[in-house]
Queue: 4 jobs
Job 1
Amino acid sequence: MIKPLLMLSMSLSAALSAQTTPTERAAAGAVLRAIDSLQSRLDPRSMAIRLANSRNTDRDRLLARVGDYWDGEMQALSDYIGTHPEVGWNEFKSVDTLIKVLRGHGFRVETGIADLETAFVAHWDSPAGTNGPTLGLIAEYDALRDADGPFHGDQHNGQSPVAFAAALALKEHMTTERLPGTIRIYGTPAEEVGPPAKSIMREKGVFEGADILVRSHSSTETSRGAAGFGICCLNINEVKYTFLGRPSHQLTSWNGRNALAAAVRFYTSVDGLRSTFRPEASIQGVIPEGGIAPNVVPARAVVDYYIRYPDGVYLEHITRMMDDAARGAAMATGTSVEIDRYGEYRDGITLGTLEELYFAYAEVLGAPRLVEAPQRPAGYEETGGVSHDIPGVGVSVFSSHGTYHTHEMEADGLGPIGHAGFRLDAQIMAGVLYHFLTDGSFRAAVREEHRTLKGLFNQYQENLKTAYAAEIGLTPPAD
């Protein structure tokens, strides 16, 4: 048995590793200690091991049915979507197929959700009533963009069938056992293309009423996050800079104003700024528009950037400086610039209660490539914001030897490695939802942890503003 002092030490070590930069760690100090105290009191690891290893014939029957649904129909559905890839906002064939499957299994489906053509919500209410929890599952289906055409190099083809397998088995179980509650499946398009669909859906209130959300995703390992704040791919600002000039024949170029020259000057200025930013910054940009014909002065050019940093406060500082560089490039070339921040991704909330239960089931079910140490918190969906409203977890069992966004990962998603990982994802998601549905004490622990961490997140943001104030010219918050 682990001694309490050692357990506290291990928990604090995991929490400290959750923050990337020295400034984050300094700003989060008191917050991390509060998170550590909460984790010590809730003891989610022990709770998870007890639940996942308990003798429970109802639960075991449920997980077996998830496997039956995957083997009988959902694996083929995953392969179909995988071999008919469609990029974000254009997943019409995939969505049409998914909706037909859901309606065939008794779900009521609303389409065009949040004014997004390829978004949907599927509903099922238990015959025993709806005064139980509302169980939400996120389903994705968009493919990656590539010069050779779309491809499922992030295995989004499996994510909807995984959710369906878990939902259908739960639907069957709730009907048989007369358990009240509701199941909702959220079809969320364009995970790989901004602006983030889940943020749009959140702003429209689509997720309101859900008590928990679960999703799956491809992975090169089986790991879980530490409790706390984070996001999978750093905080991101998606910003498009459109330079507008005046056309002219190149032989009389002085009559024009060269938008491409402004864009190139700006692009070069950003490279020059890199040394003034903290080293954890990651800034990637392309020039998707630079003119039409060599003999015409370009009147329009576009620079599209993904600006990333481990926390959102310093990210705003980077973005402000880049915005100023764009305005300077426009002034220097006699052009104008329009700045469109079309997407934002911010830290989400990761719950130890749900992460540990997912991982305990991964252990019990024999998931491969288990990583024992908790990793940096990553929320459970890529926008961060939804996890502030609703507790949830992302299940990511090892499903590929190839890294993300590659044809190797696509091939594994259509073969035995991906199929096995997806099957486990579905069973684990169903296991987590089963306990949330049937165990009041577990449900209360999840809700308490989410409520507490949400309050601590606001404190963490204020601490970051204070820590960065002198460096980036912020006015420190009033005491």
Job 2
Amino acid sequence: MSENPGFTRQTLVAQALGHVDPINGALVPPIHLATTYIRDPDNQYRSGFIYGRPDNATVREAEAIIAMLEGAAGAMVLGSGMSAALAVFMALRPGDHAIIPTVMYWGLRNWLINDAVEWGLKIELVDTTDLAALQAAIRPGETKLIWLETPSNPMWTVSDIAAIAVIAHAAGARLAVDSTCATPLLTQPLALGADIVMHSATKYLNGHSDVIAGALATARLDDFWGRIERVRRNFGQILGPLEAYLLIRGMRTLPLRVAAACAGAMELALRFSNHAAVAEVLYPGLESHPEHAIAKRQMQGGFGGMLSIRLRGGEAAAIKAAAEVKLWKRATSLGGVESLIEHRASIEGAGSPCPPDLLRLSVGSETVDDLYGDLDHAMR
């Protein structure tokens, strides 16, 4: 089925690219657990598989689906979202300058600020919603990577991928986009000019809170992509076959889950915008959002299932509300079928750019009335 370009991405992903087992006709892809493979009599590997650390058949199937979703020349899955992101930075050369957002996933932000220097990298934080500031941060001949996260976690600011791609390429740099929260269904960074897309596949791509995985997709199979592949192989970062199978299983329902999450988040954003206890709702789908026009242009079919609310009562009120909920689950992560709530400043700790009065909400598949009623009661 993957050879028929007339089918939509929703159809292709629902059927896992139409895989049918050639031996028994099974519609569900098998799990290939082998770690080693038989050589041909002349010591060649014409099957294409040599050893389990750099390659696996189930992994390849997951990568084919992600490449289709992103319109990519190639994709790879890794053992976590963090390992996927780090593989991109590890593929840079010592002395390279990289620009990253001031607001982004805190785990990667901390590594880049505190540890990237050990790899000889020069890291600079910039508000990537400010194109003038971004342009001013470019170091001619040194800047080799601009890293975006859009919408950004947990403030949900939106960066203009197409405009920043122009800036990056004019400087001879690559543009990589963490599109975890947008998912391939809402934003197509490669079509907007990005060179690499990254996902924490733990989140929406899997969607069931039972797999840790990361994914990368590339616009071109070039030397830089080859360096990323070597990082994955040499550091043993490939995803296990069972996890790859579960990731395939999760992606088959991705369009349904994302649509439900977007609809729920939009409705909750509107309701909480009029709540007496809420000082501000951060959600790019609201017309009051500073980057709403950009989000409307580069996000198709919805504005994501993530939003944050800031409480009038400050940090104490936010922590108390999170403690009082019954339906929302107090847990780290996002993108699952269950709705999660988190006081991010407590999790991120010292140096976090997250306001202490902020609660991050990941909207799942429950009914909006139930979710709103539970948090409304907690805030009261």
Job 3
Amino acid sequence: METRAPYVLIGSFVLAAILAVFGFVFWLNNSGGVGPRANYHVQFQGPVPGLLVGAGVLFNGIRVGEVTELGLVPDNPRFVTATISVASATPVRTDTKVGLDFQGLTGVPVVTLEGGMIVAKSTEPLALIAEPGAGQSMTQAARDALRRVDTVLEDNSGPLKDTIANLRTFSDGLARNTGKIDGILAGLEKMTGGGAPAQKVTYDLRSPQKPAPVGKTLSASLAIPEPTAVAMLQTQRMLFAPVGDVTGFADFLWADSIPKLVQARLIDSFENYDIAHAPLRTTDLGQADYQLLIDIRRFRISTLGETRVEIELSARIVDKAGKVIASRLVEAGEKLDRLEPAAAVAAFDAAFARIASELIGWTVEAV
């Protein structure tokens, strides 16, 4: 015996389930979800393109509710009213700013709420007024801006044509006088010290070829470290006393800083005296028996009274134990007839030759 299916009962259950789902969705869309809600009226002073019932409401970028009703103001059809339902905890104030934003690639409109500090009285219904142009999309704003630009250009077409004509005339004048303008600019550049920097001229200090007749040779190894000097002497510039700018020496440079130049030329002088027993640098391999320590006191041109070149060195000979076995001061001067770089270098060569010869003879005798 076949059992008849309870078709009426099954159909009733399915229908009740469908109605429950539709009811829940309807309640969710109209009440905005679970939890206490608060309704506010918003008035837009212009069109709100694309805004629909169910559109989201954002407070400082956070979704707090949705639009539940849209309508027109009977007395002024240009105004649009909207009812929004938001979570009751949302801090909506009477001065809260209301706007319309377009989100996503499709530009879905949402109502935006921002800030607000003034709390409304509990007896007053809270109505929010959107800012003028809040419903204007980016496209409409661009159209309005272009329309205003077009109006300005149309109203000033005459002066614009005159300005363009004047620019053309000015450009033609510049083209005809290009050569003169280049000359003026070149003159200004020279006057202000601009342009390519002047080429520096490098001068070397010459060591004497025969500082003294070769007699006694160095009986021990000797090293000449880089001389010490005050900061003023650590330069490639020509130094003057008193200090000042001297015409003709602006582009002057020694081949190296003064201490390194003196060290190199002293070693050259010892080599010219006795190449077989030439002194070493401190950077060379091995440790010398003695060191000739030089301190540069003066290496300058004196312009006080008679113009002359002045070189003064303090020399000490130290053994491996660090004991000073001899010391002395050597100095030399040379009169300078013409205050110019070539004559000054020649005077330095002559003064240095005497100092080098004196140091070589004294050192050979001491070691």
Job 4
Amino acid sequence: MSPPPPKPPWLRVRFPTGPQYERTRRLLRNGRLHTVCQAACCPNMFECFAHHTATFLILGDHCTRECTFCAVKGGPLAPPDPDEPRRVARAAADMQLGYVVVTSVTRDDLPDGGAAHFAATIHALHARIEGVRVEVLIPDFQGDADALQMVLAARPDVINHNVETVPRLYPRVRPQAQYRRSLQLLQTAAAGAPSIPTKSGLMLGLGETDAEIRDVLADLRRARCRILTLGQYLQPSPDHHPVVRYITPEAFDEWRRQALAMGFDQVASGPFVRSSYQAGEIFEQLG
């Protein structure tokens, strides 16, 4: 395999810290909470923490899957902590969040994939923070429609589930996931709760072609996905899937134009865009 291309200048970032960053980090540590910002080595972590926001990671910080793009660890799994939803809600209230994003590791070891824990966290947030908006970035629950319905019944404001990449790359990038299963989840959510917008995202630079990207966007629209995120894949370590190419900011702008023309209501597209990046601002722009 050829060596990865050199990192381009537009991917150089400052790491703002300061009192707000440290306060966010301390609050999360004292609350015994995990964030996907830390677990997945998100390049936006310093910016988000400095702006006193974070994406909560529930159900532990160890995953049952072995996706080659992801920095989240595998390893020993603990039972769901019944007090975690309360601690998430308390931390969100302390951070004065009006829009909260909650995701999880994938827990294929649990009968419902963790759906009840998602629902409990949504309920705890609604009970603690008046008028809060809650976006959940959920796993595929191995195609369990009852698990998905449990989450929908808790009335989140956005259901997010990432397809991550094009179907050809699934065996190498997401070996325990199924592209069609992810599409079906989004379609089922849109049909079962049409008032709750669905959202999905892809990483670019894993080896996909432009034609394959267009095909995935068309599939997402057919599944009635309304919100799209497109970002640059960044290799977390030498042991992870290599970066095949870096997408220019101009190309990300063009993908945004194409996606809007295909009918997506909102599109965030850029090198540092991630699933939950500026999620609240995107939601507010929905018609």
